[in-house]
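Dear support,

We are seeing what looks like truncated structure output for some complexes. This example has two components. We would appreciate it if you could run it in full and send us the complete token output so we can diff it against ours.
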Amino acid sequence: MEQFDLKTLVPLTAGSIDVSYTNSALWMTFALGAVAVFLFVGSASPKLVPGRWQAAVEYFYDFVGKMLDENVGPEGRRYVPLIFSIFIFVLACNLLGLIPFVGAFTPTSHIGVTFGLALIVFVVVLIVGLARHGLHFFSLFVPADTPVVLMLIVVPIEVVSFLSRPFTLAIRLFANMTAGHVLLKVFGGFVVLLGSFEALPYVFGLVPLTVNVALTALELLIAVVQAYVFALLASIYLNDAVNLH
Amino acid sequence: MDIASAKVIGAGIAAMGAGFAAIGVGIIFGMFLQGALRNPAAADKLGGRLIFGFAVTEALGLIAAVVALALAFS
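Here is the complete output from our reference environment:
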């Protein structure tokens, strides 16, 4: 479990608050750098018929744009910067943590990071909803045509389910990343354990090694899927705020 | 029973939640396959919903696994 340890690289304080530059911040900087290189080089000299890199950048943009068109409707395009940033940042953080040998750290395997991102989504949803509809925003918790008696039960349930959204968003991403890396470490331990059989070294370690290869492929898939699901849920919550029902 | 062994037993019981989540994930994919067999032309449009449904169901199973890990290693 020490792959999840937070190590301070440059201790800094702002007054009495610890704002040190940690390994988490370092890998988030790497994620930012990777995303920046990908986007800036891809759109450096744009052509009408795109080359491969430009086509890849356009694919990501269209992907997020289509997701917002489907889930929010015609006004979804104003939220493309937010959803695109969240999607590609989470994707880069998830993927960079899977690089072996360099001591990679997955920033999104910490509940602090994922809860921060989920809180950003939640606060934006609240601000957008309240700014657009004022106090009528709270009609979100009252499904259409419910009799008053049922409303006493349904409204608290709806409110609790609304308030649990940042938590489920954060925990889903954090649990997926943590569980994946713990599983990789457990099977890595098996490789060493089975491979250190003195009579026939290394051979029996091949079986858990094969499992580890398959698990790494699964983790790559899960990294991409979790980033997609985070962004998709953020757009669905935005839809709730923008088009109330 | 001391607290340390109670924690480990609790971790074992909590890990059973992952099995229930596996049933849920199987239901999601099975329903998708059934629907795709009935209406293959519309199956591609459902692909996004499939991945989404899988991810939210898997999340609950992983929450159980994280509870188990937190109990076993704290």
